[in-house]
Amino acid sequence: MTPSMTDSAVKAAMDMIASSPATTQEKIEMLIEMAQGFQKKPKTAQDLWNAVSLCQQAYDLCGEDNLLWQARANVGMALALKAIPDVGEQLLLEAKQRLDEALPVIQQLATPVEVAETQMNFGLVLQSLVPFNLARVTDSIQAYQKALQVFTWQKYPQEYAILHNNIAIAYLSTPLTTQTEYLRQGLAVQTFEEALKHIELISHPREYAMLQNNLGNALQYLPSSHPLENVVRAIAAYEEALKVRNPKDTPLEYANTISNKANALLNLPDDSEKPEAGNLKNLLQARAYYQEAWEIFTQHGQIEQAQIVAQVLQELETEIDNG
Asked: Which SUPFAM superfamilies does this one have (predicted)?
């Protein structure tokens, strides 16, 4: 199924399935399969809306004897709704409602892996609703923890890494008081480090780089009585991520990591034994990283990120000139 089919082509395909001699069960499966084709690599938001329509048609065909497929159609709709680029909470709330309806059936009738996948997606939807004060971070973490009972590092290292990443980010986004800030940042660092005990560079480079990059970010902003030590650890984590991320194969991830590393270098004295001597060398290195990141972001049309880097670069130029 090729993505970005026109609406009329989708409608024609739906009509063809509806009038085909296939059994109801076969029609439901065909519709959901078509929807998944749109969801895998959507080129436009319309592809995702097409997936919603196809799943809705599959849902409508389901009766009492197709409860599991009805639940799968709900999950398909929820995933498509969550993926539609939209700044509001309405589509997310609908996605949550679909998953609320699907979960009990999935838990009762599906395999443990399908249950865990649904829990993982439920956690993501809840996490996306937190900024609107429509869900609690603790509930999304709980959904991820349930998924981890199935997605162990031995059998499912990729899902294991992504779940730990999501849990750590959920900790970091917890709206807590200043007293508990140290605790949540610490929990995030611990979560990244736990995952990195099992996710290795050689076997899972992509997940390894993601975890190292995000560990660096958590360390960089960790409130601590040893801030310098944390900056050094953060830089080491970014360097690990850069063993995988490079300008040729993963330009945007690479640009992200070098700008994160540049942020850390701003706070690192050139000589830790003589911090009073300043950090001109590190500032110049940071400038080179920001410059490279800005070029990559601009080249790939990441305007917002390019603007942020440009602003930091401007402030840095002033600091270097005055220094």
From this structure: TPR-like
